C-alpha cells in the first residue's frame, strides 16, 4: 500500500487501483464481470462474498483457484480470470 | 510446524472474539484463528470506507490486552484427536489444543431459480460483504430480495456505498413482518437498530410477499422478474442481492464427531446449557448452534470461553442473558418462515450444483445425497455441497450430510505433512 491508501495491481494485464483494504474480487470487478467459466463454459462471478461458494476463483501470481473474495489485494499482484 | 494452545478458538466473529477474551481472562494460552485476513466475522466485517464498527473495535482493544495469539488466513481443512490442520496461503500448521471453541458462524441460504448463476446475482449478505471490501456498487441499480432482517442491513450498507437500491423484496407476508415488529419492544437495542436502518433506507421501497422468480441476461444480469400479489413484472437492474436467511456452518463440528440437531431443515451443533458439544473438551458458540444473531453470538462466545478455561461460575452468570437472546431467535424463525413457492422456482434445466453444473432434473429419482453425488457429481465440487447441499435440503430433495475431510479443497502437501492419519478413501479429488 502506498501513501494515498491505494493498492495498485493488474487484472488480465490491465492496471487497476483499489482502496487499501479491498479484496482481489473488488479489483477484478473493475475490469470484468466474468471471474471464471463453469464446467459447461458459463460465465460466473462471486456469490457469497465470504469464501464459501468458490465462484470467485482466479489465478493470483501464477497460483490457480484462489478465492478472490477472501484474498486481500496487494501492490503488484498479477491476477488472471477465466482459467 | 506444530503449535499448542490451552484453548483454541476457530472463527473470529463476535462469538470467537468473546470466547478468546473470556478464556484469556483466566490466564489460558489462547489461539484465535480465522480463514479471513481480518477479525470481525460477518456482522463486524471491516469496511474499506467506514472501518470496523465501534463495538468491534472495543472487542479488539480488549483482546489486545490479553495473551491471545491471532492467526489470520488460517483455514481448517482437517481434524484429528485434539489436533486441527490449518492451511495458510504459504504453508500448513498443526494446532494442538487442550480445549476447542468452535465459532464458525453461518452462511447464507441461497436457493436456485432460473438465471441465478448469472454474474451480477449474489447473496444479500454476500453483496454486503463484497461492498465492504471495496466491490464497486456506486451508481449501480441493485435489487435486494429474499428474507429476514439481513436484507435491511445489506441494503443499508449498499446505499452507504452509493448504490441505487431499487427496492427490498421480502418474501414473508406483511402480516408476519408486522407481527414480528410488534414484539420487538422486548429487545430495546433492536428497536434502536431498526430505527437507524429505517433512517438510512428512507425512500427505498420495502415490499412484502414479494420474491424474485427469475433473472435474465446474456453474459451478466440485465433484469429480474418480481412476483407479488399483483402478479409478475420485469425490472431492469445491474445487480440482484438475494438471500433466504442463514445456515449454520456445522461442517467442522461434524467432522470432529460433535452431534448435530437435525430436527430442522438445516443441522445445527448440539450443545448443553454450558455450550459443551457431545465431544469432551469441544465447545460451540454463536450461529453454528442455531441462528441467533449478534447479541446471542457475543454472550455464547463468552460462556464457551469461560467454560473452556474451567471458569464455570463466570459462565453461569451469563445464562439468563443467553436465554433471552435465544427467545428472539425463535421469534425471528417463526415470522420469516419461507413461502412454499420458493421451493418450486427452479425448473428441470436450472443448475443446482454450481461447481459441477448439475441441473435439477439430473437429480430426479435419487433419494439420498450420496447416491446422487456418485451418479451426477452433484456436491462434489470445490464448495463441497455448502451451496447445493443446503439448497437441496431446503427444496425437500435430500438432507445434507456426509461431512468428510478435507473441509475445503486443500493442497496435497498439507495433508501429507499433517499426518492426521486420514484414511485414504476419505481424500477426494484435490485438483485445486
Ligand atoms: C454474509 C453475511 C452477512 C451478515 N451481515 C449481518 C449484519 O449486517 N448485521 C447483523 O446483525 N448480522 C449479520 N449477519 C448475521 C451474522 O451471522 C451474525 O450477526 C454474527 O456475525 C454471528 O457471529 P458468529 O461469531 O457466530 O459468526 P460469524 O460472524 O459468521 O463468524 C464466523 C467466522 O468463522 C470463520 N470460519 C468458519 N469456518 C472456518 C474454518 N473452517 N476455518 C477457519 N475459519 C472459519 C469465518 O471466516 C468467520 O469469520 C450476516 C451473516 C452473513 C452470512
Ligand atoms: S464469492 Fe463465494 S467464495 Fe468468493
CATH architecture of the largest domain in chain B: 3-Layer(bba) Sandwich
Task: Give average pLDDT of chain A, whole number.
Answer: 94
Q: What is the terminal-to-terminal distance of chain B?
A: 23 Å
Which word captures the global form of chain A? Answer: globular
What is bound: which ligands? flavin-adenine dinucleotide, FE2/S2 (inorganic) cluster
Put simply, the count of helices of chain A is 1
Describe the main β-sheet of chain A briefly: 5 strands, mixed
| Order of strands, widest sheet of chain A | 2-1-7-5-6
Main sheet properties of chain B = 7 strands, mixed
Shape of chain B: globular
Quickly count the domains of chain A. Answer: 1
- Percent in strands of chain A: 25-35%
Share of helix of chain A, binned: under 10%
CATH level-4 homologous superfamily of chain A:
Beta-grasp domain
Quickly name the level 1 CATH class of chain A: Alpha Beta
Question: How many H/I helical runs of chain B?
Answer: 13
Assigned CATH architecture of chain A: Roll
Within CATH, the superfamily of the largest domain in chain B carries the name FAD/NAD(P)-binding domain
- In helices, the fraction of residues of chain B equals 25-40%
Question: How many structural domains can be distinguished in the coordinates of chain B?
Answer: 3
Task: Give the helix/strand class of chain B.
Answer: alpha/beta
